Amino acid sequence: MNFKYVIIGGSAGGIGAVEAIRELDKTGSLAVISDEPAPQYSKPMISEYISDGARLEEIVYRSPKFWEEQSVNIMTGKKVAKVNAPTKEIILDDGTKIGFEKLLVATGGKPIVPKVDGIEKRGAYTFASLTDAKLLLEKLPNANHVVVVGGGLIGVSLAEALVNLRREVTIIELKDRILSLILDAEGSALVTEVVEQAGVRIITGHSVTKIIGKRGSDVQVGSVVLDDGTELACDLVVFAIGVTPRVEIVDPQQIRVNRGIVVDRYMETSAPDIYACGDAAEAYDFTYEDSRTLPLWPLAYIGGRVAGSNMAGFETEYPGGTQMSALNYFGLPVISVGIVNPPTDAGFEVLTSLRQESKIYRTIVLQNDVIAGMILVGKIEGAGIIFDLLKNKVNIKEFKDRILLEDFGLLYLPEPLRREMLRRD
Q1: DSSP string of 98-118?
Q2: Distance (Å, whole) CA 152 – CA 306
Q3: How far apart, in Å, are the Cα atoms of 210 and each of 205, 207, 231?
Q4: Strands across the sheet with 261-262, in order?
Q5: Quick one: pLDDT at residue 53?
Q6: I want to staple 14 with a disulfide (CB 3.0 to 4.6 A). Which of 9, 211, 293, 389 is the partner?
Q7: Beta strand 274-276 pairing with 97-105
Q8: What pLDDT is attached to residue 131?
Q9: Would you tell me how many other CB atoms lie within 10 Å of the CB of residue 331?
């Protein structure tokens, strides 16, 4: 079995690549291989699937007819065991070999599961896929207290979903605050207050070391033990610590792998005709001006489109991405972009404004009067303009004293810059 184009992974990156390829090549044979039964759903929406009872068709990213409309040979429920770069072959776990001319690895990330005694018990889950969400949803009717291990984006969004279902929730976070990767201490404190007011118990600075079975049914989760010996009774434990790039199918002797699969500005790996994107790849970050893993849904789609264009012969450069999070937890809007926890000895300048009573917080991180990061909590107007200044590395010295204003917008910019920004739009 041979194809001109093969894509491993049918989520955001794979879909972006399919669309780009078909815009340039209507007839070249194209196969997508996914180990999920319905890969084209929105992973950021799996919490909504839990809390709102959203039907599958409401979180599907493209319709089931998408593959047929794009003339794709879709292979769902198939697991790739190995990519052989020199022979341009993919080997499935059942031994089937698939040849390719151009390959995209868009395998995404896999949930981080710590080594915890008792993790095999019924009622212990991860939360990174629709399959995980379905398993959890099946068990919720008989669960009152859920322990969520991990206070990052996934963990807090899951906690909100469970609160909406009137479940008792405890978040266990190893670091000293929740959302530590996207918020500084002040921003995290504001979000923590709102989350706790909603009824979630938050325990920071600790980890789960053991899961104990229920009395009379040791195979079922009954409680967790923390690293300080504290025991918390619970019905379910969900590990929402984050994801790590799924790179095990590539041979690092054939394709360069760091934390993720290393790609250039065209999303091509060190092996000719093999590309990578999304959570599995290390791609250009325009804030750090270096390659990093950025497990973000929109960037996976953009990276997939760039890879697909190049696979089909149209040279396209990846514009780069950076850490970007826009969320709304328990009614509190938050936007975080770029470097938000800068090292103290690297010459960064941090501008902050806090209105505790209104839960409005703004932080702008500068390096040589150029924006390197921002946090907006409570009131997010002007975020798009600040992001444009960050992405285009505009020196803001002339209007730095106005950047923290809650109504900051185009009118606060010098006229030449304002005209330039309007032209870009």
Answers
A1: EEEEEEEE---EEE-----BT
A2: 29
A3: 16, 9, 9
A4: 261-262, 281-285, 290-293
A5: 54
A6: 9
A7: parallel
A8: 83
A9: 10
Return the closest-CA partner of residue 42 out of 130, 162, 135.
130
Instruction: Look up residue 291 and give its two tokens.
Output: 């390659």
- Coil, strand or helix at 171: strand
Cα distance between residue 165 and residue 77, in whole Å: 31
Give the span between the Cα atoms of 328 and 331, in whole angstroms.
Answer: 6
Q: How far is it, in rounded angstroms, from Cα 263 to Cα 376?
A: 31
Cα end-to-end span (Å), the chain: 46
306 SS3 class: helix
Give pLDDT, residue 132: 87
Regions of the chain where pLDDT drops below 70 = 38-41, 52-59, 425
**How far apart (Å, rounded) are the C-alpha atoms in residues 105 and 250?**
9
Residues 6+ apart with CB under 8 A from 251: 82, 83, 84, 85
- Among 407, 405, 368, 409, which residue's Cα sits nearest to residue 387? 409
Most distant pair of Cα atoms in the chain: their distance = 74
pLDDT on residue 69? 93
| Integer Cα distance of 299 and 283 in angstroms | 10
Q: What are 14-71's pLDDT values in tens digits?
A: 999 999 999 999 999 999 999 887 666 677 777 877 776 555 656 677 877 889 999 9
**3-class DSSP assignment, residue 135:** helix
What backbone torsions phi and psi does residue 279 show, to the nearest 5 degrees?
-60, -20
3-class SS at 276?
Answer: strand
d(CA 107, CA 266): 18
CB atoms near residue 416 (< 10 Å) = 8
pTM given for the model: 0.91
In 37-107, where does DSSP find H-type helix?
46-51, 56-59, 66-69
> How large is the C-alpha radius of gyration of the chain?
23
- Least Cα distance to 331 among 198, 186, 177 occurs for 198
Strands 89-92 and 80-84, sheet pairing: antiparallel
Distance in angstroms (rounded) separating the CA atoms of residues 326 and 387: 12
Q: Which helix (H) or strand (E) holds 17?
A: helix 12-24
Q: Write out the DSSP string of 158-224.
A: HHHHHHHTT-EEEEEESSSSTTTTT--HHHHHHHHHHHHHTT-EEEES--EEEEEEETTEEEEEEEE
